[in-house]
Structure formats: C-alpha cells, structure tokens
Specification:
By secondary structure, the chain is of the alpha+beta class. It has helices spanning 18-23, 45-54, 70-74, 87-96, 108-111, 114-120, 134-137, 139-149, 162-171, 195-206, 276-294, 327-334, 339-348, 386-389, 425-436; strands at residues 2-8, 25-31, 36-42, 60-67, 78-79, 101-104, 125-126, 157-159, 176-180, 189-192, 217-221, 226-229, 232-234, 239-241, 246-247, 250-252, 256-259, 264-267, 301-310, 313-320, 362-369, 395-399, 402-404, 408-410, 414-422. Residues 1-31 have low confidence and may be disordered.
Length: 462
C-alpha cells in the first residue's frame, strides 16, 4: 500500500519567486507495507544464511524453516519437522499459515515441482519452475541451451550406458572429466587421469542412473583455468547481478581430493579480469535467459552459472537454478540491501526497479566438515566453541548439518560454515581461521587454504 503526500511550499513562503516556487514543490512518499510471514525450504548453511539476512528486514514477520537446523532455531526461527522434499506437506503448511513468501533453498524441491505446485494454488514462491530448473537438474539440457544461445562452453559427449561412456573416454586426451547428468549435490564430477580412474567413476555413477535413461553421464576434456561463481537474480525479464565469488570444490588443500558441495568461498574475486563481469552479464546470463524465454520457459529466481577462466577466455561449466552453498553465506555477509525486498521483486516482476548495495571489503567462508566427507562419515558428535568464535563481531557461524538435543551436535557432512568479513581479503581470511581455531568436534576437517591463491591479486592487501 502506498500513500503520497504533496506540499506546495510557496503557499507558506509567498515571497519566493515564481520559478523558485515551482522548484520547491516537495513530494513526500510514505510506504506502508505489512509484515510478511516467510517459509524457507531447506536445512543447510545456505538456508541459515538466508534466514540470518531476512531477520534484518524491518518487514519480516514470522520466519519458518523446513526442516532447518540448530542455527536457524537459535536465530529465533520456527523449525518445522517437514523434509524439504515433502512438497505436499510444505504446501499444506503454507496455505494453513497464510505464508506470504516461500523461498526454495536446495535443488531437490525444484525437481519435484514445488514452485509449480505453489503457483497453482496462488501462493508466492521464489524459485524457478520444474521445467526452468532443468538448466541445473539436467546437464545435457543445460548444454543444449548453451549451444542454442551461443554461450562459450566445453565440448562434451552425452552417454547413456557404461560401454558408450568408456568408448568416449578413449577418444579424449587424458585427463578427462566425467560428470553425472542429474543432480549430484556438487559431488558428481570426476577428473580422471587414466582410463582406469574413469571406469571406476563411471561405474559409480551408473549405479544410480535410472533404467531407461537416455543420458547418464557427460564426458568432457579437462581444461586448465580458475573457477568463478556468478549469481543473478531474475524476474524472467530483468536481472540483478551479484559480484563474482569463488567456491573451493575439492575436499583437500591445493585443490586435491574429491569434489564436494563446496569447502569454502571468497567474495569478491580480486584476480578476475576487468572485462569479465560485462561479458558474463550479456554473453552468458542474458543470453541464457533470452534462449530460455524463446523456448517458452519463464525463469524466475536465481540463475547461477559456474565459469572457468581459461587462456581462451571464459567457458561456462554449468548452470544452477538456486543460491550456491557456500557462496550464499559470503553474499549475505556483504549485502546491505533488504533481501526480502529483492526476493519479492523477483516474484512480482519488478526487479528492474531495484538495486543492490554491497558492503566495502571482502567476505570469506570456511566449511567445517565431518571426518570422511564427501564419502562415508559419522554424526552425533558434540560441537564446542561456536560462541567463542562469534565473539569477534565480524564473524558469523552458519550451521549446516547440526541438531540441538541439549547440546549442538553434528548431523551432516558439511557441519558449519565459518564466515568473516574484513576490509582486505587477508583480514577476512585471518579472522575466519582465527574463529575456526576455536571450534572443535570429533573428526572435524576443513581446508586451510581458502582464498590463499587469490591473496597475491588483492591490491587492498595491508
């Protein structure tokens, strides 16, 4: 609801000249907007970060998280015993509790059509439809759209069975990249230095490929370069670009070990070429959205391409259809604008009227994971030191896989994301690792080099 009030100053100051009177008409706009009750779907570090930021909005009403974690509970949110994949139960709750906005965090509910379901009942929800989300949920679908849009990407071969995939591997120069076609939570990518490694990876992937599937894996050549994560809010017509961030996918230091859902991130990225943001906005993000629209698909929500900066220029590795994790955590630490306003503008088709203000400086996130992650790991271990870590006002610890049974305990692979902000990248890194040093739980593992390779490019370094 909007109320406009105009005051003609010259009525009260008659001695003003005519031209002054015309210039001094003051228009005062008061905005009256009701509080909004919000439901966040998901229970990881990304969802805790979104809840943390939404709590700062003067318009936030009740905030529910399904299923949430110990961190969202401590924040004052109401955790719901509803899995993120139970879309019918989520719909029932939203209708019965008059939820004004639902925000989809992870990708699984998108695959299940939660946005389509909510919209069919007239409910406001942030995220793409099941069809639009295929830019992430099917790598082959995403690759075909990139080809149609003329987006620079890496050549590939889609394979439906093990023998076809092994034949494709032998046609490439090693090392070769093997990717699961469907959802893999960031862990379905294998860089194979030999055909034997490729065969092991392929057998692992094909264990979970549904019978009758026409595409199980993608085979790609391995390219050398540095990765960027780009996020763009879209209402289907207009976009708002986020500053580039850099995820650290491999489990171990120096980019060794298996791929994970992400072991840490930095934002912004000091080594990024100056012309890259404009290139990505127009030749990647806008090109993809236009192509999606030309295919009769309306994309609203977060479009998030992963970019590899190579000697031949940027190459798009893949597209995602939601906030990244742990990228979301660093974005929320730097964002000054009201997040609720932005997400509602996406849903309402008015993102062109918005802008995003960012805090000066850098943010760094370091993921603390369970021992053994991304493979088998144990949970249920007591976590200590979170309160001590957060005594520095520039540090926020976002919970991922945690529960509270009287003590805060581990309940997942990626347990906590320790974030820190600072005027320089070095300040942010130092603060993050100082905080990490105060937290303990059995089997805790983390990378000790988040942001390290970017330090030499930070011109603000003290």
């Amino acid at each position: 609801m909007y109320l406009y009030l105009s005051i003609d100053i010259y009525k009260y100051v008659p001695e003003l000249r005519i031209e002054m009177r015309r210039a001094c008409i003051v228009h005062i706009r008061y905005t009256i907007r009701m509080a909004v009750d919000v439901l966040i779907i998901g229970g990881g570090g990304r969802e805790h970060a979104l809840a943390w930021k939404l709590k700062q909005s003067p318009r936030i009403g009740k905030l529910f998280v399904a299923p949430g974690n110990a961190g969202t509970e401590a924040l004052g949110c109401k955790n719901l015993p509803i899995p993120a994949t139970d879309v019918r139960a989520l719909l029932k709750f939203a209708e019965e509790n008059h939820i004004g906005l639902t925000i989809v965090g992870p990708e699984e509910p998108l695959v299940l059509g939660v946005v389509d379901l909510f919209k069919s009942r007239g409910l406001r929800i942030f995220g793409p439809t099941k069809t639009a989300a295929q830019v992430e949920t099917s790598k082959v679908f995403g690759k075909q759209l990139m080809k149609d849009a003329g987006i620079p990407t890496i050549e590939y071969e889609a394979c439906a069975d093990l023998n076809q995939a092994l034949s494709a591997v032998r046609r490439y120069t090693l090392p070769v990249v093997v990717k699961a076609d469907g959802l893999s939570h960031g862990k379905g990518v294998y860089i194979c230095k030999s055909t034997e490694e490729a065969e092991v990876a392929l057998r692992e992937i094909f264990k979970t490929v549904p019978e009758g599937s026409t595409t199980g894996v993608l085979i790609e050549p391995f390219l050398v370069g540095s990765e960027l994560s780009i996020h763009a809010l879209s209402d289907g017509t207009s976009t708002l670009m986020f500053p580039p961030s850099q995820d650290h996918k491999r489990a171990q230091d120096d980019d060794m070990g298996k791929n994970t859902g992400g072991m840490g991130a930095i934002c912004p990225v000091p080594w990024m070429p100056l012309d890259t943001p404009s290139f990505i906005e127009h030749r990647v993000v806008r090109a993809m959205l236009d192509t999606i629209k030309n295919n009769g698909i309306f994309f609203t929500g977060m479009l998030y391409p992963g970019i590899l900066i190579t000697l031949d220029g940027p190459k798009v590795l893949e597209f995602n259809a939601r906030f990244g994790d742990p990228e979301c955590q660093v974005y929320m630490r730097l964002m000054k604008t009201d997040l609720l306003d932005l997400l509602e503008a996406c849903v309402d088709g008015s993102i062109a009227d918005k802008r995003i203000d960012w805090r000066y400086g850098f943010a760094v996130s370091v993921v603390l994971a369970s021992g053994g992650y991304p493979e088998a790991y144990k949970t249920g271990f007591k976590i200590e030191g979170i309160r001590e870590a957060e005594r520095n006002s520039e540090v926020v610890v976002f919970h991922g896989g945690t529960i509270n049974d009287g003590d805060i305990r581990t309940a997942g692979g990626r347990v906590l994301t320790v974030t820190a902000a600072g005027p320089t990248l070095k300040d942010a890194i130092d603060r993050a690792y100082e905080a990490v040093g105060k937290i303990t739980f059995e089997g805790m593992q983390y990378r000790r080099d988040i942001g390290g390779t970017a330090l030499k490019y930070d011109t603000t370094r003290s």
